[in-house]
Amino acid sequence: MNVLYLSILTVLCRFASSEDWCYQTQVTCNKTCVGPDEWETIAPECGNRKQSPINIVTKNTLTDSRLTQVQFTGYQEMINTVIINNGHTVQVNLQNIARIDGANLGATYKAQQLHLHWGKNGGPGSEHTIDGEKYPMELHIVHIKEKYSSVEQAIGDPSGVAVLGFFYEESENANKKYEGIINSLENITHPGTNVTLGDISLDMLIPSHDKLEKYYRYQGSLTTPACSEAVVWTIFEEPIPLSREQLSAFSNLTFHDGTAMVNTYRPVQLRYGREVFYSRSYAFCVSTALLISSVFTSIYVLMV
Ligand SMILES: *[C@@H]1O[C@H](CO)[C@@H](O)[C@H](O)[C@H]1NC(C)=O
Ligand SMILES: *[C@@H]1O[C@H](CO)[C@@H](O)[C@H](O)[C@H]1NC(C)=O
Ligand SMILES: *[C@@H]1O[C@H](CO)[C@@H](O)[C@H](O)[C@H]1NC(C)=O
Ligand SMILES: *[C@@H]1O[C@H](CO)[C@@H](O)[C@H](O)[C@H]1NC(C)=O
Ligand SMILES: [Zn+2]
User: Fold this and answer.
1) Is 209 a residue of the active site?
2) I need a labelling partner for 143 at 20 to 30 A (CA). Which of 6, 169, 294, 299 fits?
3) Alpha-carbon distance 198 to 221, whole Å?
4) Residue nearest to ligand 1 atom 8, measured at CA
């Protein structure tokens, strides 16, 4: 028992000793870890000019007709894998079962892992913001180009990583498709613990594909050190519903120091002239064309 206690202390002290990065919420009283404002000191790329997340100002986005729908492959497969509390977030490892292409990605990307960013008890917690609004949580599904075998390898390529970002919104009713993940949380409250997730597919975790034609696209970075500028971001407009209780369940997890794992997001970064593109759906083109033709028809009818 004493040995176990000592080894836990050793782990705590190792993480408390300066080098490890942490979120702003962990910096407070005793400065025992490196907060977002100082990540640059341990990972220089965090101070560069293509960083993520950003605030998306919708009226300044550029509509791009090449941004067709994302093609999902394997998203309906059941994932037989573990969910892990890694000390910064909860992560689900995905064993290359799923792929994405289309959407002007220019390559096929395979899924590696997913993780989340959240607030406190369902309060604001997303990383990206839309017109300054922070959603309660954000899902990141991390993919790498097919030819690479790990995220570490893919970050050497400016478009080596493709992350799909989804926002959550508070709903009246619980989202039953999330019960597996939410129920698993009570078994992974401490960092370093994991539990097997059963009967979950990626499709169960995201909105139906027909609601995903509207999204934002920009070039950015990983939102944790080393902040590698290798990410093609795709941020979907359609949020995923979760009840207040479901959102709050994530606040039961703890960081290494035993405090509540809350506000796990990096503050928004400057855009430095980068463009943010917005997909233009086929439905939009058709309805606009119909509108224009009906206007011309009525003018014609009036003139005759
Ligand atoms: C801050 O550090 C001091 C000395 O290391 C310790 O006595 C104190 O309990 C710490 N406070 C917190 C809030 O961790
Ligand atoms: C959590 O752990 C308990 C005890 O080991 C187990 O009975 C239960 O099935 C686990 N729950 C989940 C969702 O994994
Ligand atoms: C999950 O936890 C077990 C110990 O309970 C450990 O042996 C295993 O390596 C862990 N798996 C992962 C992927 O972290
Ligand atoms: C979270 O903790 C609260 C208070 O301890 C408890 O009532 C609630 O059931 C927990 N939620 C989950 C999902 O474990
Ligand atoms: Zn993330």
Assistant:
1) no
2) 169
3) 31
4) 30
Around ligand 4, the residues with Cβ closer than 6 Å are 182, 185-186, 249, 252
The set of protein residues with a Cβ atom below 6 angstroms from ligand 1 is: 29-30
| Among protein residues, the one whose CA lies closest to atom 1 of ligand 1 | 30
pLDDT in tens, 34-52: 999 999 999 999 999 999 9
Query: What stretches of the chain show up as alpha helix (H) in DSSP?
Result: 2-16, 24-27, 39-42, 151-154, 179-184, 202-205, 244-248, 282-303
What are the domain boundaries of the chain? 1-38, 43-303
What's the topology of domain 43-303? Carbonic Anhydrase II (3.10.200)
| Count of residues making up the chain | 304
Q: Whose CA is nearest to atom 8 of ligand 2?
A: 187
- Rounded to an integer, what distance in angstroms lies between the CA atom of residue 9 and that of residue 37? 27
Cβ(195) to ligand 2 under 6 A?
yes
Which tens digit of pLDDT belongs to each residue from 291-302? 556 655 565 555
Q: How far apart are CA 127 and CA 44, in angstroms?
A: 20
For position 199, what pLDDT does the model report? 86
